[in-house]
Amino acid sequence: MITRRSLFAGGASLGLSAALGVTPVRAAARRAPLSDPFQLGIASGEPASDGVVLWTRLAMDPVALDGLGGMPARAVPVQWELAKDEGFRRVVRRGTEVARPDAAHSVHVELDGLDPGAEYFYRFRAEGEISPAGRTLTAPAPGSRSRALDLSFTSCADYQAGWFTPYRRMAEDQPDLIAFLGDYIYEYGDYKYPVRDQAGGECLDLAGYRLRHAQHKADPESQLAHAIAPWVVVWDDHDIENAWAGDVPEQPDPPFLRRRAAAFQAYYENMPLRRAQKPNGSSLRLHRSIRWGEVANLHLLDTRQYRDLYACTGRSGTVGADCLERFEPNRTMLGQEQEAWLDARLKGSRATWDLLGQQVFFMEMDWTGGAGKGWSNEGWDGYVASRNRLTAAIDAYRRNAVVLTGDVHSHWAGEVKRDYADPESKSVAVELVTTSVTSAGNGLDEYPDTQNLLAENPHVKFFNGRRGYVRTRITQKEMKVDFRSLSRVTEPYAPAYTSGSFVIEPGRPQLNPA
């Protein structure tokens, strides 16, 4: 296994290459036509019991304003190797893919025929240049119950808002799988007072989205996290445009479906996704399931592309008790096809745990203190019937469901109720909300209104307002949860601390303090 010392000595490229006995130097025999093309690192994702996706994207100048990474306008053959050992003495697979200009010189190697529940190491080579090396894993075989799942998840990485230290801390834990739950990039232009300088303006076209992804991938902390374990990803709004809903944008110009198609293409080019997720213009099927033996199914949801428009106002925000549209029975967060797909997955599940990786607050949440009431119409509170259908399915199929959520830039944990109007109503699931990587700055452990919000929402059990991630260990017997927080991201290398710990037991959808 890549050791912590070798991984974190000198950054992602130097540390990983040294760990594997590989020095990423140019070929000495002749002057290489490419110069340092692996500046965006490497990644893997979408683990199955027999395979995984390997990814890289060639770039010699990550912040080139045309979004093409300073690469020549020609196809480049890229060799890849997969080994059982970190020294690449036991190479089990190798091959060549072509990095093409029309895909921003990205490479997706979709492997099958691998051993289940196995650890592998991989690297790439292009015209004499060698990439850093990464570690990846395949999922346990179907029916396997003995292999735990160490899953970490986070969301919302705004480059301008701070340093990506949470990625480094997450990598130090060496998880089996990392889930990113939306807003991997932010489409915004420049801030007035940024912590870090961002290349390019607001993302409006393919060049802009490619550039924004490239700057994120070039970050050394991001490269550490991508190199240590396979990733699974879903988007939220800022991966495309703030507060978009279905085919409706927040701002009408440029034409939204053209902008969305550009964002989808750049998203696919820069993520370790399978061919099944390759976009078709302004459409991309992102919902899918990852199976980890019989221990857990991770159902990854898309709460943006198919949702109805925001209730009552048509724009995201807080609505009061007079907003009856949010209760309309046909309103949907997921769309009919995705709802039916998820229902079938839950009904047919034989895993101990069913995890729902999604983007926006699922539990009911009254955000208005005092006698008044206020609910976010952007979260599931704006789609009550859709939430009720999913909650009823979890209950009817007797699934041990845990909802994994991003978006709100703070840690939360609570219990999903069948009837929030009845304090004695049974809990049918647990929701774990991760904070952001950087969005909203350093934050606070507790805000002045925190205790009032918790008192008015008794099913919500925990809050922390710092940046960080959530670390879990999932077995047949229990799910252990640690909320990991950092005191600051406006300066690099803050340590992580555990701000809350809980245990969830099968058959008991409640949070037990650890």
TrEMBL record:
It comes from the Bacteria. Residues 40-138 form the Phospholipase D N-terminal domain. It holds the Pfam family PhoD_N. InterPro entries: Metallo-depent_PP-like, PhoD-like_MPP, PhoD-like_sf, PhoD_N, Phospholipid_Metab_Enz, TAT_signal. Residues 152-483 form the PhoD-like phosphatase metallophosphatase domain. This is Alkaline phosphatase D. It comes from Nonomuraea wenchangensis.
